[in-house]
Design a protein that fits this description.
Blueprint lengths: L1 E2 L2 E6 L2 E10 L1 H16 L4 E12 L1 H16 L3 E5 L3 H9 L8 E2 L2 H8 L8 H7 L24
Parallel strand pairs: 3-4, 4-5, 5-6
Antiparallel strand pairs: 1-2, 2-3
Helix pairs in contact: 1-2
């Protein structure tokens, strides 16, 4: 669903909000309106995908921190994925990477949050491994060989 220039989708228990453009003063106002709407609807587990975002200003950082606190007060969390090296450096220099979880990509964030990536059921992920091309782990000996076929 597209709203206010942000794309929203549900993945498991998370609401993923894809951001494109800048989180400058104007972009932050739109982000705040969108997050207010989500929280008013009871959505408190939010993943902000900033991969297509090109800039985050101080007002954007303040909004992320404020809404992360709102979500945690209500039993949820707000995390970021698709974080650029520059954005990671800014959050790290300010010590904010200890307040808001930062992930390189959407798949890593979804797996860390316990939601399977889009189009993948949890049962299948657990059997195959974290990625479709990763062989399943033989849980009896802990190595990454393919699980032996059942003997008949």
């Amino acid at each position: 669903m597209e709203r206010n220039g942000f794309r929203e989708e549900r993945v498991g228990s998370l609401s993923v909000l894809s951001i494109s453009g800048n989180l400058d003063t104007h972009g932050t106002v739109v982000l705040e309106e969108t997050l207010d709407d989500l929280i008013a609807r009871g959505v408190v587990d939010i993943l902000l995908d900033v991969k297509r975002g090109s800039f985050i200003g101080s007002s954007g950082i303040q909004a992320v921190l404020r809404y992360a606190a709102h979500c945690r007060e209500r039993g949820g969390d707000l995390v970021l994925c698709g974080v650029s090296d520059m954005m990671r450096d800014v959050f790290g220099a300010m010590g904010l990477d200890r307040t808001v979880a930062l992930y390189d990509d959407r798949t890593g964030a979804l797996l860390a949050r316990g939601s399977p990536p889009v189009g993948e059921r949890r049962r299948d992920r657990d059997r195959r491994g974290p990625c479709p091309d990763t062989p399943a782990v033989d849980r009896r000996n802990g190595d990454r060989r393919r699980t032996p076929a059942a003997k008949t």
